[in-house]
Here is the input.
Amino acid sequence: MAIQQIVQIVEENIRAEAKHGSAHRDVHFKAHGCVKAEFRVLPLPDAMQIGIFAEARTYPAWVRYSNGSGKVQDDSIGDGRGMAIKLMGIESSQSGTQDFVMINHPVFFVRNATDYIEFQKAVSQDALSKFFFPSFNPLNFRLHELAIAFAIRSRKVDNPLDIQYWSATPYRFGDTAMKFSVRPCGKPIDAFVDTSSPNFLRENMQKHLTNGDACFDFMVQLRTHPLEMPIEDPTIEWSEKDSPFIPAAKITISSQAFNTPEQLKFCEDFSFTPWHAALDHQPLGGINRVRKAVYETSSRIRHELNGIERREPVGF
Ligand code: HEM
Here is the structure.
């Protein structure tokens, strides 16, 4: 079965990497940092008072920023950038947490589990072009996926606190479905954008947070046109004309010092997954079904190899 095959490859990769030192995430390896945040649900119309948005209250949260690659590489290399938010104190979630896992692009570049296996194979052979051009038959070319992958890798990012992130895949919103996104509040900040060091993303984040707070609007996009807003294909963007993103919460990251060896280590031991979710926000679609087993295995294996207990945080 496709999911089992993906899980097995992820496990093999983590075990192989760990022979050179400690065990790490199979992808999104390099963290720019983990920061403490506050997630304040806004007063919302009745129809949107679902799950964690049921009441206007504030949740404490951890946020991890990362590069997409499975290697630690210079931040000047084109790559997806991740933002993973973990709300704590969520009673209707088995883990007690609600994770919102996002990248800095509205869509993902793989449609389903079967395609993901081909992607993994191409990566392991160091021949990514085989995924996009699997044969000489142009009917098999994955040009739509290639365009998305190219767009993700070409986005220029100077500071992880200054860009928008998207869920790309759908989630339940009570009886309907949503995608979500976070966008920096206010105008873009032009300061702290020096790109000369290999870790400039972490350094610019720290300069920003030494100087003041950062803030994001958390927004929800409801599935209003089922035919044009597929659940099973995360390479298709849900049109904002059909259904605009609606602000549902405000995220505040207060000025803080996170760039310390202790906090970076602490950050590595977190486990984010779309499946840490309240009942009303369970993940939907095939790619999210793959992620259930994959993230669980990736987290379990790296914690086992590092001799660290897996625990969901309950506070700061
Ligand atoms: C079949 C598709 C996917 C696979 C196999 C996959 C695999 C993984 C794995 C193995 C991890 C590390 C988990 C851990 O050890 O804790 C991870 C983390 C991550 N993934 Fe995915 N992923 C997939 C799809 C996606 C999508 C669609 C997004 C877009 C939102 C995404 C965004 C992220 C982010 C941001 C992280 C880092 C979370 C953190 O900071 O710990 N992934 N992924």
User: Anything to note?
Assistant: DSSP finds seven helices and nine strands in the chain. The domain at 2-306 is CATH 2.40.180.10 (Catalase HpII,  Chain A, domain 1). The chain has a mean pLDDT of 95. The pocket of protoporphyrin IX containing FE is lined by residues 6, 10, 25-28, 64, 66, 82, 84, 101-103, 108, 116, 167-169, 234, 270-272, 287, 290-291, 294-295, 298-299, 302 (CB under 6 Å).
